[in-house]
């Protein structure tokens, strides 16, 4: 809301709630409007939550019982030893669930707050352990760790990160106690090994060297020293490298070896080897097993039988054997073969563009150049209704798709949808249907993907939580940007757009930051609009400035005066902000270095301030194609409406009733 409160309310309210600054004296110190008495409050707003130890446990969906056992143990330990959130935050990291487990997965997420849902592969597919040395795709556990750490960036600060498998027991009180004697920087703590990868040779009955790993890492002899994957701990400064560069690093191999290779380049890295703190369970045997010690931090190779010695009061595994272990109702899933992973959230391949044009005529038109082809398409091609040619004219967006420009291939567009709340299920569903139906009408290499950016998950007892979990798991097009458990309702986190697109889709040429109440004509943007746009420095939308809202005295509560006091630059209306990849990446980098201004200011205005310093930034108003619904209603005193047409790229605000005007065949709104 751009309307400021009156002066009396402002002086009585907290500074975070105030929408009007009071200035006195001969000089208006507009930019210095925070008083010292509010300094503590402002500092608190800028600080992310902090914890001593962040515990990340990699898991896969079938392992319901493993998560239950570890969850119960950690809960008992932190309750018995009075461990608070200032000392520990823990999460299970999970990827995309198999279809058969979506209901059970949603039920678990609905009941527990310790699960982090990531749009990555959940587990690797291999027949024997040797196949894990070099894979065709990134190791799922590595990708989970990197993406999770990137999610926490800016929302949670921590001193150390402990990573473990879900078949491990983690003694949190012991870990916190030992950290008092360990370095605070450049720390890599675990059970280290210096070895050559081997694989069992069934023909000879002996292990032999696995050379594929050496080839992948360009290593002739031994590999870098690494901490075994059962569990290891690093300091926050070491983790920052993974946050910044993790997606660029080699990851198609064994996770613990790869992490050791990643970290070896840090000068003066403190390798702290402790085989008594990190080891396999004694009953498992092998070279990494140790007898039970109450001082252990991570004990690997846990199963139901071994959990029966867990002492809930003392938080260790050296107690007497219990016979009262209850099996989890979901345990049967972990024993069953894992179904193939669900397909990515994407429409089924379209039968073709909804236009009929003789191929010989099309190829001849293409040979005549882009403009000639577009002209002939409007004359010769006709719209297809239910697969049958009609007398309707082929829309310009699809003609652009049928007339590829020189060089072939089109721009990659990522649509990042902001502002949706968990209760907006129906409106989100209509937009999703529109995006999927329109996104399937691509030609050549043009493409568009979408993601909804969401705030905190609903509370544990909220009836919306299980629905939210099932929507995340089933559609795989929602990203929760407040993973640290903070009650965050801010859903216009534009600064997170690039990182999300980079993780989900590997990047894009352009990003459209879309309001969840907007309609977007995807084919028009991908095929007709973007090919002619510069790929750097682009900032487009329905551009506004303070003068459009009417200027009066700066002390009167008008939108124009509100923007003038903040020295707001020209800004694109939040209905849809189109930027090139470099602009989105700049805001992401800026946010990683400084706390970006966002309080007491609309998100779209704030974004324009963030990018204002960029050299060679190209501002272009597209108000004829990015506009409001033509109902004559002025938003904030300004009517941004335009008649609906095939050239309407973004229309705001949409309602369920207005979505009934959407034509899925042409991806347009019918006037």
TrEMBL record:
Top-level taxon: Eukaryota
Organism: Polarella glacialis (Dinoflagellate)
Family, as annotated: Belongs to the glycosyltransferase 31 family.
Topological category with respect to the lipid bilayer: Single-pass type II membrane protein
Subcellular location per the Swiss-Prot or TrEMBL entry: Golgi apparatus membrane
Protein name (database record): Hexosyltransferase
Keywords: Glycosyltransferase, Golgi apparatus, Membrane, Signal-anchor, Transferase, Transmembrane, Transmembrane helix
PANTHER family: BETA-1,3-N-ACETYLGLUCOSAMINYLTRANSFERASE
GO molecular function terms listed in the Swiss-Prot or TrEMBL record: hexosyltransferase activity
